[in-house]
Amino acid sequence: MATVTDTDYGEIRGVLYQPALAKADLKALPALPTKTQLKAAFQAIETRFDNARPALKADIDTALGRVTTAALARKIMIAWLRWKLRQLEGE
Amino acid sequence: MATFRKPVQIIAMDSGVFPDRVGNQITAAAAPSVGELDAYVLADGGADEGVYARVSIPKNYVGSPVLVIKGILDGAPGASDTLGFGVRKRAVANNEAADGAFDAEQVSSATIGSSGSAHSDEDLYTTTISLTAGDYAVDDEVFLYVFIDASGTTYAGNFLLTAIELQYADA
User: Fold this and answer.
1) What are the φ and ψ backbone dihedral angles of A87, each rounded to 5 degrees?
2) Do A31 and B77 count as a contact with CB atoms less than 8 A apart?
3) Does the pTM of the predicted model rise above 0.80?
4) Distance of residue A89 Cα from the nearest chain B Cα, in angstroms
5) Residue A16: which residues within 8 A CB-CB, separation 6 or more?
6) What ipTM did this prediction achieve?
7) Distance CA A34, CA B43 (A)
8) Strands, E assignment, chain B
């Protein structure tokens, strides 16, 4: 499981706190989350996703009827994530 | 004794810092307003992040140097949120090597939410860093790195840097 570092926090926060994404929503809050809180939120997402990956690979293997390599399963997840990202941004 | 302030010229910025119209970052009043000004967009990006600047030490400088940092808070601080700034510098006289490591950082951090100075979203925020008087001499060219100090900051909003000034006394 990956640890969200301070550098990772800065990168994710930089994407989040833009007018095109969540800046207006965050500025509408009575107070912004603190750096510690945001970093913990990013870590929670990272942990949940990382923990799900073995089960996701097992589901992919079952669906494909074969044992895929870790690399292929990862690439299938990447393709799905790119599609899902467009879905989420369009909501 | 009189106290003076003179502008510090911002020359360059870290890769994570960018200049932008204030009105692109906050919902400003109709023009003419502060929204038409440009500012440097700084934030605690997990590591120190800032701008490079320079200032000449004036003829009437005697001592009591203070770095004054001014900008607009972009995001509502939490009650106990802190915002820290730092400066590193190299003061160079004529005929002295311009290149060389900047001096060790000097930092200052303050609670900007309701538990401290009670600043709000889009307030002007002014803070100071006390400098070492003996580090500067008349006519020195001072090269500075002024930055948000990540280790002294919990505030997750942006800081729209509008000005840096050198404050000093003439006696």
Assistant:
1) -60, -50
2) yes
3) yes
4) 21
5) A22, A23, A26, A38
6) 0.86
7) 13
8) 3-7, 9-13, 18-21, 38-43, 49-56, 63-74, 82-92, 106-111, 124-130, 141-148, 158-169
